[in-house]
Amino acid sequence: MSDYAIKVENLGKKYLLRHQAVGRRYVALRDVLADKARSLFQNRKSEIANRKSVEEFWALNDVSFEIKAGEAVGIIGRNGAGKSTLLKILSRITEPTTGCIRLRGRVASLLEVGTGFHPELTGRENIYLNGAILGMHRAEIRKKFDEIVAFAEVEKFLDTPVKRYSSGMYMRLAFAVAAHLEPEILIVDEVLAVGDAEFQKKCMGKMGTVAQAGRTVLFVSHNLQAIRQMCRSVILLKQGKVACVGEAHLGINMYLDQNASAQAGTTDLTTHPRQRAAEVGRLLSLKFMNQQGEQVARLNHTEDLLVEVRFRIDQPTDTLDIPMAIVHAEGIKIFSESYSDRFPKLQLGVGEYTVQFSIPLKFLKLEAYSLAVGLFDGPRYGDFIEGLPLPELVNEAADSHMETHRWGFVRIPVAWKPVSPAATV
Amino acid sequence: MLEQTGVSKPETSNSRRFKFSVSTFRFWLPLLAAGWQDVNSRMNEMVIEAGKTERHYWADLWRYRELFFFLSWRDLLVRYKQTVIGVLWALIRPLLIILIGTVIFGKMGGMLSDGLPYPVLICAATLPWQFFASALAEDSNSLITNANMISKIYFPRIIVPASAVIVSFGDLLISLVILAGLMVWYHVPPTWRLLTLPLFTGLAFFASFGVGLWLSALNVKYRDFRYVIPFIVQFGIFVSPVFFTSSVFHAKHVGPAYLWYDLNPMVAVIDGYRWALGGTAAFDAWGLAAALTVTALLLFSGLKYFRATEKAFADII
Known about the structure:
The complex is a heterodimer. Chain A has 2 domains: 4-106 and 183-260, 3-Layer(aba) Sandwich (Rossmann fold), CATH 3.40.50.300; 267-402, Coagulation Factor XIII, Chain A, domain 1, CATH 2.70.50.60. Helix content of chain A is 25%, strand content 33%. Chain A has helices at 29-41, 44-52, 83-90, 123-133, 138-152, 167-179, 197-212, 224-230, 248-263; strands spanning 4-18, 54-68, 72-76, 98-103, 107-110, 185-188, 216-220, 233-238, 241-247, 267-268, 281-289, 298-300, 304-313, 317-320, 323-328, 333-338, 346-348, 351-360, 369-377, 380-389, 392-394. In chain A, strand 19 and strand 20 form a beta hairpin. Chain B contains 16 helices and 1 strand. In chain B, helix 5 crosses helix 9, helix 7 packs antiparallel against helix 11 and helix 14 (265-276) packs across helix 15. The chains are: A alpha/beta, B mainly alpha. The A-B interface holds A 15, 26-30, 32, 88-107, 109, 111-112, 115-116, 118, 120-121, 125, 128-129, 132-135, 137-138, 184 and B 35, 38, 41-42, 45-51, 53, 64, 66-67, 69-71, 73-74, 77-78, 81, 146, 148-155, 218, 221-225, 311-312, 314-316.
């Protein structure tokens, strides 16, 4: 008998997709009765036709894996790969269609921060309520109460209804309750994607201590950096099946390759959300390439990243500038540059153009950064798009100085000199 | 687990004498120390298998009993948060019904009143009926209003409709003030029969919970089912002896309706209330037996239907 905490065998979950008439969001008794009545008078053929409109969909299919006690495991996969369904089955919200799961120990699942919070109730009341919803006992909550309040930093507002809380306070309080659960198995969905950078950091820290305390953690995230930091192994899901179970970096690389081949082309910027409507021109698409001009989803940190931006000019301009900036995942602006730093401002007529620039990655850490690009033309508004994630930075040589726990947001190669005896006077 | 927290065996010469008690301790101490369910969950592994989730049903319900208290407490708290309005609302509705009933049926109809002043008679019916009606309304919406919780957290779903009934129960307790006030005003002396009031209230509680289970589950499945509830309530107030008495009904011999009349559990509840207040109508044991049977059937079938559908709640809600 092995020391597993979670053992999943041949798990499957089937959903029935009803291709029903538009506008029927729910099953209504009215419709059911009407259909029944209709089928009484119609022949059997139409019934068969009706049945055909129900399609089976396997959100999970033949999923098997085993997780050892005390292991932190990340679950990755693209949207619709079945991650959330898996978590829902593991946390018993919904039943599997086939297969079997064995869980050893008390399970707590955190699929959403603040489930069951009631806006009319005070912070104090919500702590007790949410604790109970997450499966804590009253005595347990009472014991941890001060700790929860301190973690959430809401001492002053304990007796204020949470509807008057700022969204940050609300999130902090909600996470604080969940973070003080002490289950043997913790199941966490992408709950850390909310809140400000500092809050996220705090959550990650707390999750890390939970994992180090020998509890089994199952963690779904799109934040690969977080997965890398916390989990030693990952489960990669692809279209409801396990594509890979194994060491974190292997799984993540496989996932990235899978994404790269799926993207196969350029990022379309025309549908990207913008602050304002463009006047002068519009950004059309974006391509990330290595120096060889091959499209990539990940790059070694020693390489340079080549970016190609395609844009359209709608109004002739003679003072066009193209700014770009790199922003750290925690919202810190790292640096910005403009086309005009190197060349004079552009004189362009109506038409489509491309611009390329390359960024040396050796100054960045192995963390998530995003790109912002724009079209500026003095008083006339051009276009500006933020939050375009850079390709994943990887460390193929496994250099120790690339470890992620270093301070700061950039990495400047410092020239160290060897230690020598101090000159005595 | 046992080894870790158990009491170690004393090595002294009289260890034989202690043998029995020590071994008992070795078994019981950890259970007492860690709490039964923690030990239970740590030792056993839980198996989730297709179609076999029921196995833990009642154990889970017991484990989640605190959630039931907290949800009821939340609903009550939210209900009476704006205290004046909340409490007044619980009083105004039955008061209006009593007033209208007294004026229209009492003054104009001149019905029998079983030896009770007419306002007291109506009040004894209005309070349980209001409880029943509002419990049905609360219950039928309860799962939908808590949809967010149901799709994100596991807990025995039955807690939701159960705690929804508690809110209506809170209203009932508050509105008992009206009954007390009317009894004082009309000099209706309390007798030992008044002690049976909780029993009839319990009957109303289980009857409404039974129907509520059906309605809440049906409402998840068929979203237009909520339109049925006002109908049930409107219809119910006329087939239940709210504005008349069962003795009037029996006196008129209303044909085959007579058989159906007693199947409505609220008839027994209302008759029971009136009897408990000192009404002169004879205690209808057969009616009570019928009501108990119907309530048990409702509860049982409601439970069965609820459990059959609850597995799919998270998928369809």
